[in-house]
Structures are given as C-alpha cells and as structure tokens.
C-alpha cells in the first residue's frame, strides 16, 4: 500500500520594482557615519543601501509607505495610519543619512522617516528576493532504480512529529513522497492527508474513491490507460498536493507513472534555451 504525493507544477515568480533608467542627478544631501558598515547610492525613484554584505534596492514609495513614525504607523496594532494612496508616485527625499544603524530620510514636506538597517534587512522585498530559494532535487527513472524514493512508515508517520518533519522536508526536495503500510481504508487515507494539511473540497468532494465503473465522465473512471498529465490545472487555484492510495487491485495493469516536470523543464532549458 502506498500514498503518493505529487508536486504541483507551478512556480511562483518573485518580482520587484525595477528601474532601467539611469540615475537621476539631483541635489540631495547625503551623509553616513564612518562607524556604520553601510553605503548609499541614490537613483531617480529608489536608493540602494549596502548593509552587511547585502545590497537592498529600496523604492521611495515603499519607504514612505513603511515609515514607522507615530503619525504613519500604529505600533500597538501594527497597522498603518498613513493612507498609501496619498503618497506621490514621484516622491523622493530631500536628505538622506545613515546614523547609528538607522537610515534617516527627510521628505520634501518636512516629514522625517527613520528605519533600522537591521529591520530593513529583515523586511524589505529586496532582501526576500535574495533569500535562499527552496532547493529541489530533480529526478528521473533512476530514482526508482537506485531506490532513493523518500518514504516513511505509517505508524511512525502518524505518531512522531520528527518523522512528519523529515517527510515534509523530503517532499519539498523531491515533490513526491510515500507513506508505506497505510491500512487500506478511506479513513486511514484521510488521517494521513490531515496529518499533512487541510483537505480541500473540489467538484469531486474532499475525500473520494473511484474505480473503473464509468460513474463520471472522466477517463480515470475507466480502464483506459492514463498518460502523463497534471490534475486540476483548470482550477483557479490548482491542487498543491494530491494524495493517492490504492485500496484494492484485481487483474493486471494500473501502474502509476510519475514524472518530474521540473526535470523535463531543465532538460529543455539545457538543450533548447531559445524555446523557453
């Protein structure tokens, strides 16, 4: 018996504000403390702060919107007092400074914004783009030949949080993972699913069984062989994880074919990059 988890073949693309224009030469007063390991470079709509080996590209609108002064931000409720829509899109500061580990900006209306460099490093969109991307291990049929498929035993999976953690880490790395020795019941399958996440309702329901009885207009309910495909791609939010459990099998055939779409995409990129 096995439970199969299949990775959703969808990648979220991170994007940020980028300017292709050359730096605007404006008369801004800039100063930095010699004791602070940071540097500033001013551009037309953003500034670049170098801090502890990281370069943060900070848009002026974003900076004004994230001002932590009492008039702009309620520190008790962690909510803005500032109306984001009131910020001019061409806003830029009159003066900039790095003082005592803080970036200090004075805007043209006289408002002063002060940001901890450490806070900017932790919260800016630029730092998040530079953060480590979740690694992936791409695979082909060798993963089965070499018996490297990640798996966990059902009893330990259900009772040990450390086993669950390791299982999820393997799932994130490979996009597939197996739970072995699961009792051949819908209830046990549901328990395994809920151990990982909430069960999402679809047009088929939450948990459902299917066999070759033609009860639905779907090839999965027939004896036809199913070639490589992804499920629920037509949904506004396709399934992130799919769980399959073979409860009973009679006759021949019915083997499950798994394909790593990211592996196929990487091969295409290597062989025909012009087609991407």
UniProtKB/TrEMBL annotation:
Q: Which UniProt keywords apply?
A: Carnitine biosynthesis, Dioxygenase, Iron, Metal-binding, Oxidoreductase
Supply one GO molecular-function term: metal ion binding
TauD/TfdA-like domain: residues covered: 153-275
GO BP annotations, alphabetical order: carnitine biosynthetic process
Q: Which cofactor does it need?
A: L-ascorbate; Fe(2+)
What Gene3D superfamilies does the record point to?
3.30.2020.30, Clavaminate synthase-like (3.60.130.10)
Family annotation (InterPro entries): AlphaKG_dependent_hydroxylases, GBBH-like_N, GBBH-like_N_sf, TauD-like_sf, TauD/TfdA-like
Task: State the Pfam families in the record.
Answer: GBBH-like_N, TauD
SUPFAM superfamilies to which the protein is assigned, alphabetical? Clavaminate synthase-like
Q: Does Iron count among this protein's keywords? A: yes
The catalytic activity of this protein is classed by the Enzyme Commission as 1.14.11.8
Keyword flag tRNA-binding: no
According to UniProt, this protein's pathway is:
Amine and polyamine biosynthesis; carnitine biosynthesis
- Identify the GO cellular component terms for this protein: mitochondrion
Q: Domain of life of the organism in this record?
A: Eukaryota
Q: Write out the catalysed reaction.
A: N(6),N(6),N(6)-trimethyl-L-lysine + 2-oxoglutarate + O2 = (3S)-3-hydroxy-N(6),N(6),N(6)-trimethyl-L-lysine + succinate + CO2
- Role: Converts trimethyllysine (TML) into hydroxytrimethyllysine (HTML).
Query: What's this protein's family per the entry?
Result: Belongs to the gamma-BBH/TMLD family.
User: Protein name, please?
Assistant: trimethyllysine dioxygenase
Native species:
Pleuronectes platessa (European plaice)
């Amino acid at each position: 018996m096995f439970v199969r988890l299949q990775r959703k073949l969808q990648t979220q693309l991170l994007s940020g504000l980028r300017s292709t224009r050359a730096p605007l030469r404006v008369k801004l007063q800039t100063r930095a403390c010699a004791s602070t390991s940071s540097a500033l470079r001013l551009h037309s709509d953003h500034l670049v702060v170098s801090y502890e080996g990281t370069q943060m590209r900070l848009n002026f609108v974003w900076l004004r919107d994230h001002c932590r002064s009492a008039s702009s931000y309620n520190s008790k409720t962690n909510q803005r007092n500032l109306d984001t829509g009131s910020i001019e899109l061409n806003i830029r500061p009159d003066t900039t400074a790095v003082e005592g580990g803080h970036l200090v900006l004075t805007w043209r209306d006289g408002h002063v914004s002060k940001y901890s460099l450490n806070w900017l490093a932790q919260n800016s969109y630029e730092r998040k783009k530079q953060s480590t991307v979740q690694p992936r291990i791409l695979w082909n049929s060798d993963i089965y030949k070499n018996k490297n498929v990640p798996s966990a035993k059902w009893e330990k999976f259900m009772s040990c949080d450390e086993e669950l953690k390791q299982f999820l880490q393997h799932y994130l790395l490979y996009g597939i993972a197996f739970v072995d020795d699961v009792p051949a019941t819908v209830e046990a399958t549901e328990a395994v699913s809920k151990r990982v996440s909430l069960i999402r309702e679809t047009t088929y329901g939450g948990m459902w069984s299917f066999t070759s009885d033609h009860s639905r207009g779907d090839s999965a309910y027939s004896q036809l062989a199913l070639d490589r495909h992804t499920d629920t791609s037509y949904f506004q939010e396709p399934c992130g994880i799919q769980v399959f459990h073979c409860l009973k099998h009679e006759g021949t055939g019915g083997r499950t074919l798994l394909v790593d779409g990211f592996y196929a995409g990487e091969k295409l990129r290597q062989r025909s990059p012009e087609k991407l």
